[in-house]
Design goal:
Blueprint (H helix, E strand, L loop, with lengths): L14 H7 L2 H23 L4 H28 L4 H23 L4 H23 L6 H22 L9 H13 L2
Keywords: Membrane, Transmembrane, Transmembrane helix
Protein name: DUF4239 domain-containing protein
Organism: Corallococcus exercitus
Amino acid sequence: MACLTVNSSPWVLSRRGFRQALPEADQAPLRELRRQYLDERIQAHQMIPWGEEFEASRARASRLQKQLWASMVAITRADPDKDVLLLPPVRLMAEVAAKRTLAVRTHITSPTFFFMLGLSVVGAMLVGLTTARGEGRNWPYRLRFALVISSAIHVVVDLEYPRTGIVSTEDADSLLLELRESMR
């Protein structure tokens, strides 16, 4: 059995490995299926701010992944020695997609968010009461406090919805885009 290399992405066999492991007749359709799948995953992650479009694109990618899995299983039934080479990358592809989808769908709960807002209001009230007893108003102190609290809330919300705020995760998509470019 020939030694196969795996590309930097966990689910894509190198071109040489792909050609060695797959029968000649199956290479072109599976290569196109991989490209379509990757295009759908890229499109899905670009549609994250729009929930329905993300889910539709994710569902299309899931169907393509199932087709790819079925094709690989059919090939490994014909040649069982290739199951170690062909099935793990496709399984990893599904796992990575599931983890990314879970990360998109998981956010802090509403009670946690409201608790955080409540804490900031109580903190502001306590600072206001404490500084009201002093002589004169310490505006720089009050402004710094307001800036720190609002910045903390903004960062938490921004990290929860990274594609719509200042903190951007578009670099994470660059790996998918680079992988897609290498498939041309």
